[in-house]
Amino acid sequence: MSLNVLITGASGYIGGSIVAEFLSLKRGGTLETLVIHAAVRSPEQAHSLKKLDVNVVQLNLSDETAVTEYLLSNDIDLIINNATSIDPRIASSLISGLQKQREATEKEVFFVQTTGLSAFDENTNWPFGEVKDTDNVYDLEKRSRETYVVREVDAINFNLWECADLKRDGRGSGTWNQLSPQIPALIQASIKHKQVYKFGENRLNNQSGAQDATLAHVSDVAKFYGQLIEAIFLGRELPAGENGHYFLVSHVVSWWDIMDRLAANLHARGLVTTAATKVWPSDEMAAESVGVPSRFAHSMWNSSPKVLCEKGSIIGWKPVWTGESFLDSLGQEIDDFLELGLPKSSLLSSLKPVSGHGMN
After folding, report:
1. Environment class of residue 51 by beta-carbon count within 10 Å: exposed (0-12), middle (13-18) or buried (19+)?
2. Residue 132 phi/psi, 5° resolution?
3. 159 lies in a domain?
4. pLDDT at res. 50
5. For residue 237, what are the contacts with CB-CB under 8 A and spacing of at least 6?
6. Rounded to 10 degrees, what is the CA torsion of 92, 87, 156, 13?
7. Quick one: which H or E segment has residue 70?
């Protein structure tokens, strides 16, 4: 069996790590007939991928005609969309194009949307409390879609296949953007103020059950996608459609623990004046410091979604990283930021309002 996969956001933090994982599986012979198509936005991003065994395309993903033409002309079977979780136009364009591919070829096709656990946090008006990925997550998101754009985009995807929800940390293995902007934005703000700030409440998602968590290291996330595509390649039956959410979470870490460890590491490097943290004087100051509208500051840097990961075991996913190993890695996160700077990512800028869509 051959499989043609299109990875959007292929030069990004998650997308680039998925590309690297898939290439590793190809080289190892597990998926030697896999053909990887990598969609990027700029010539610079395309250049960063040109030496890899991938077909690079600079594609406007909101142009449904161009997307459909590319899918049909390259016989794409599977899309993994990492481009955005807040622009419904892109999700709709990709899904519509893939549906036309299915109609034209009568082959089975697959759509995987990478989204975020902020959709299940009370800071974004999630009204249903704790949720498992074995619940009917689509129905719950549909009922609250108008209060948060991530849920609106998730709801678009239900009638096609999978939807992987995650928070992630660590250094990626892609060629262009190797860092998530989340921790680097905090580091940059702390260095600017010579002080590490935190939000006033210590929100810890510490529900019952060993699988309950708030983070997953990017290397564990990439491994999940590798195991997922192997299962699809082998023709295994997987939960999909309305049952297609997979919560990629692996460890529990409180934000105060993160900020305390960052403060200690930054102070040891002489980058802040004290190892003690302070509470942000206002949400507006916090939002301005990390570069997002104020309504997104809590969902990005003080979230505690009450979620349980139960489906990962279906494909044999066993995360390697733990909460303590993540905290121990924050010194390396600082070194990575000092080396690479704030990621070349559109995530933070994309958190600005999308015209016509509720983002309360």
Report:
1. exposed
2. -105, 155
3. yes
4. 86
5. none
6. 100
7. helix 64-73
Is 55 within the bounds of a domain?
yes
Question: Would you say residue 345 lies in a domain?
Answer: no
C-alpha dist (Å) from residue 95 to 5, 67, 112, 156, 313? 14, 10, 10, 9, 27
DSSP bridge pairs for 8 = 39
Check residue 214 and give its pLDDT.
57
What's the pLDDT score for residue 259?
92
Q: What pLDDT does 141 receive? A: 87
Task: Using alpha carbons, select from 253, 238, 245 the residue that is nearest to residue 308.
Answer: 245
What is the model's pLDDT at position 174?
44
> For residue 321, what pLDDT is reported?
87
Angle at 98 between CA 60 and CA 178, to 5 degrees: 50
Whether the Cβ atoms of residue 206 and residue 312 lie closer than 8 Å to each other: no
| Alpha-carbon span 79 to 207, nearest angstrom | 33
CATH of the domain at 50: 3.40.50.720
DSSP string, 157-221: TTTSSEEEEE-EESB--SSS--B-SHHHHHHHHHHHHTS-EE-SS------SSTT--SBEEHHHH
Q: How many domains does the chain have?
A: 1
User: For residue 74, which amino acid is it?
Assistant: N
* Residue 257 counted as domain residue: no
For the chain, the distance separating the N- and C-terminal CA atoms, rounded to the nearest angstrom, is: 45
Query: What token pair was written down for 186?
Result: 């905090």
Query: Which tokens belong to 105?
Result: 């070829």
Query: For position 76, what pLDDT does the model report?
Result: 95
Q: Count CB neighbours of 294 within 10 A.
A: 13
- What 3-state DSSP class applies to 74? coil
Q: Residue 236 is part of which domain span?
A: 3-178+206-252+304-320
The phi and psi torsions of 311 (rounded to 5 degrees) equal -90, -15
Helices 13-27 and 218-233 cross at an angle (nearest 10°) of 50
> What CA–CA distance (Å, rounded) separates 285 from 15?
31
Q: What residues of the chain score a pLDDT lower than 50?
A: 159-162, 166-168, 170-178, 203-213, 353-360
How many other CB atoms are there within 10 angstroms of residue 199's CB atom? 18
